[in-house]
Amino acid sequence: MALTDRRPWLMTTGIAILALGVAAIVAPEAVPLSVSPNLVPLVAVLALALAYPVFVRRLRAQRTFRRHGDPELPAVRSPADVERIADFYEHDTWKRHHLQCVALDVLTQHGEYSRPEAVRALDRGTWTDDPYAATFLSDSYILEPWFSLPRGDVQTRRSLLDDEYAVDPPATARVRALIAPEPGDDYRYRRAATELDAYTETPLTSRCPLHRRWLRRLSAMSGTERGSDGATGSCPPDGTNTEGDVRTTNHWRGISAVTLACVSVGVLVGNPALILAGSVGVGFAAYTRFARPIQPQLRVERDVSRNRADPGDRVDVTVTVTNESDRVLPDLRLIDGVPAALPVVDGTPRHGAMLLPGASSSFSYAVEARRGTHQFEPLSTCVRGVSGVYETELAVESRTVLSAEPDWRPADGSLRPTDALALDPGEFPTMRGGDGVEFFTVREYRHGDPLGRIDWNRRARTGELTTLTFREYRAATVVLVLDAHEAAYAATEPTAAHTVDRMVEGAGRLVGPLLRDGNRVGLAAFSPLDCWVPPARNRTHRAHVRKQLAESPAFGPTPPASELSYRAWFDRFRYRLPSRAQVVLFSPLTDPLPVELARELDARGWSTTVISPDPTADRTAAQRIAGVARQLRVETLREDGVPVREWAPDESLDAVLARASSGGTA
Amino acid sequence: MTERAGQYGVERGPARLSQFLACGAGLFVLGTVGFSSTLSWLLALSGAVLAGSGLFFGRFGSVSAGALVLLLAVLAAGTAGAPTLRVVSAVAATVFLWDVGRNAIDVGTQLGRDASTVRIELIHAVGTLYVAGLVAGLSYWLFSSSVTAPPVALLALLIAGTVLAVAFESHGTTSRSG
């Protein structure tokens, strides 16, 4: 701005005129000038007019300060984010269209409608009693022009918590709804989502052949979300400092309007009090003018109560920051870099401090250890002067590592996973008696039975000829495939264990019983990171598989950074997979890829069972819709003949298998 | 932690000490200039309510708007002939509220309520208070001797005030990356 060049000149002129004015008051005789009194109001109005652009500039000036994500919460996403429903499509008609497609699928599968009937029911609103849901999904209803869902701010990791759009809205939203005469479109959207969710509770009724096309369309519209938390930028090597980013906060922008307004109104009205009051504004403007940005020199030490813990343990972290420069740091704001997968359970990783040169300040908090190896991220600091005009941001590195190995609880002795998982009956030991090692039963002698199998003891006792039979013992090959691509890292709530953790623990516990039953067990990861253990059955195999589960980067605590290329992965997998293997796929089914995988494996002759941990919740409309979409995928797989065992968040894998082997379909 | 904070995550409301100080400043303005005239009473009340709601819910816009309306209330009171000391201290208090109130929201959003932020809030508030007190006191002392002034003095003060305010307005530097 040209004004900045003239600023020193302006300043000196201003001070000179001020001196003149003061002299005219204190010693009127010394200043023989006289001006017409009418000039004064004119200039006053001009000054007032000058206040206007200052005001406008203030309005437009963006107040800037660093907004950080929530390091307190683990970096998991709700399935609603994976489905991209929460910040889906800015165009409101697309949102409704998406919900209409979901509704059509739900009505044809769970309602008594055929496809054309479902379309008519939606349009007329006869599918539900709720008037708001009914009108919303009808094409004849015109959406409000300002209808838009909040942009789920994925960067702040709080997008799971859109309280305002929760199905049970908080009191303020209810009050707003009371005042507004007619519920808005967002309310109708919520009601429609609730009604659809209620529909999926009813059992499947019709089998509309056309629904598959719609389901594929629905699946095509969902996609994986690239979640990314606030980047901390490039980090300097441990301990050293680089220059921080300096930024103006625009906190004091517009203070001169105070002066202009007070002085001009004071002059117009003739009240010297207001003119005096204007000097307050000048004083503050000068205060901010002489602010300078600070470049801090900091040293950070992070102390962890232990570096190796068990999952679920509480680990205390103490951070000490020392001011190594010779300047006072009056306003130092610190946010510690809690590892992405760990929740903070006590205290807070944020701190504000004022540091004299050489002084230090410390704060502490506690995290809960989770499976895997976790690297602490650099400490984020923001330094401001007393006036707060400039803000300097700096990231200080201090390398700390926390690791936790999953504890494999001893497997339940009565677990019979091979029966429970409904693997191909021709492949694994059945209830038939035949050749083998383990004694099974005694039957009547048939002509042709080998002499070595005759029960001679019984022949000696009773004179009967009977044959011993032994349990057939054929080795089956089972490959456990764990879905660990980026969409599979989901959780019901931010502090709950995410699905990959649950699947790793479940798979680790399943390996023992499978091996004990005589099967050969292999392991693979459905992820851009490679992990493959060929099926085998030797003494060290269980330990080897568990080691891979615990240490492989494919099953790390945070989602992989790269995207999975399905076709390349499948082509590689299919050459490794033995031809008579059976696949147990662990997957939360949060996106269409694992559905594709299960169907393709099944179609190509590898018998597949899916164990699906359920990551959906029903606190908000978007989460309910994500739950509905997942339910549709489960039903698709079951219709194709792939058994799907659902695994609720509060259940253990033993309960799932027990339910399955007792004959349930869930 | 989950009991104290919101259901998840950090309690991000405005920082408590600064909230308290800003509310105090708002009440001070209401008390000093609120009773000069009906207009100033109305303006001061609505300004205080606006700023108060901005402080409670953590909205920058409301706090700024509230401060602006309070300033208008002071102008109205000055027009109605309020005493000098009241007007000057009320303007100082308005600027204090504007600054400390927005700092409260700032700190609350960045660090949350659970972190110990009393020191940094206090330093900022004390700095603002010091400047306000200094300038208000100085100018009041300087002019307490004479009430009327010749037009040339007024004009000179007016122009000086305008020029200095514009000259001092900090446009700021563009951020340099480290």
User: Based on helices, strands and strand pairing, what is the structural class of chain B?
Assistant: mainly alpha
How far the N terminus sits from the C terminus of chain B, by CA atoms, comes to 35 Å
Backbone shape of chain B = globular
| Helix content range of chain B | over 70%
Q: How would a crystallographer describe the biggest sheet of chain B?
A: none
Structure characteristics:
heterodimer, A: alpha/beta, six-stranded mixed sheet, five-stranded antiparallel sheet, 19 helices, 19% strand, B: 178 residues, mainly alpha, 6 helices, globular, disordered N terminus
Describe what you observe in this structure.
The complex is a heterodimer of chains A (666) and B (178). With 666 residues, chain A is of the alpha/beta class. Helix content of chain A is 37%, strand content 19%. Chain A has a 6-stranded mixed β-sheet with strand order 17-16-15-18-19-20, sandwiched between helices. Chain A has a 5-stranded antiparallel β-sheet with strand order 1-11-10-5-7, with no helix packed on it. Chain A has a 4-stranded antiparallel β-sheet with strand order 2-4-8-6, with no helix packed on it. In chain A, β16 (520-526) and β17 (532-536) form a beta hairpin. In chain A, α9 crosses α18 and α10 packs antiparallel against α11. The longest helix of chain A is centred in the N-terminal third of the chain and has 25 residues, at 2-26. Chain A is elongated and about 150 Å long. Residues 86-91, 144-166, 205-240 and 424-428 of chain A have low confidence and may be disordered. With 178 residues, chain B is mainly α. In chain B, 73% of the residues lie in helices and 0% in strands. Chain B has 6 helices and no strands. Chain B has helices spanning 16-33, 38-57, 60-79, 84-111, 118-143, 151-168. The longest helix of chain B is centred in the middle third of the chain and has 28 residues, at 84-111. Chain B is globular and about 55 Å long. Residues 1-7 and 170-178 of chain B have low confidence and may be disordered. At the A-B interface, α1, α2, β1, α10 and α11 of A face α3, α4, α5 and α6 of B.
